[in-house]
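Hi L.,

You mentioned the student needs an example of a multi-chain input paired with its predicted structure. This one should do, with 173 residues in total across all chains.
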Amino acid sequence: MGLIHLYCGDGKGKTTAAFGLALRAQGADFRVVIAQFLKTEPTGEVTALRNLPRVTLLRAERRFGFTWTLSPEEQQALRREQNALFSRAIAACPQEGPVLLVLDEVVGTDRYGYLDPAPLRTFLRAVPENVEVVLTGRDPAPDILELADYVTEMKKIRHPFDRGIPARDGIEQ
Ligand code: ATP
Ligand code: MG
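Structure written out for the whole complex:
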């Protein structure tokens, strides 16, 4: 039975929890498909997963700046890329055998309008039986939260960023 997991909230650990589950599923012979929305920077997980069998990691390759610096045309191009990434991720899931599908940062991409709302919701309302889905991102739209079977909020108690420590390789990225 395919269920939906949601890792949300303002604390650290959403993406790393999703990749932890991906590792567990891969070890149990699942096919793992991971789509990383909005991310183009190199990260440790991309390098780590490159040589792991049964894992497909998908991203949009073109780099855009911070979303608030983009022109309307660039925003439209970004939207097209994120929609294409969603379609590629769904298409990459085999129709048979256990699959873990991680849609990393899809929550923010949806929340801020960089993904068409309908295809995501249509998919989540009728997830194929062989697919377990993981969604991550800070602030889910209420109907997305409602669709999830597991909802886990990472709550920030303290984070070194608040005292000026920037993202560190291997820890934050
Ligand atoms: P991680 O990838 O480390 O598991 P995350 O997925 O929970 O973090 P995101 O909201 O995706 O967090 O954050 C993107 C980046 O910001 C990551 O480098 C993450 O470690 C870092 N981060 C997470 N929470 C906070 C926070 N409360 N304040 C500052 N930076 C944060
Ligand atoms: Mg994340």
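You could point out the following to them. The mean pLDDT is 95. The pocket of magnesium ion (ligand 2) is lined by residues 14-15, 105, 136 (CB under 6 Å).

Best wishes,
N.
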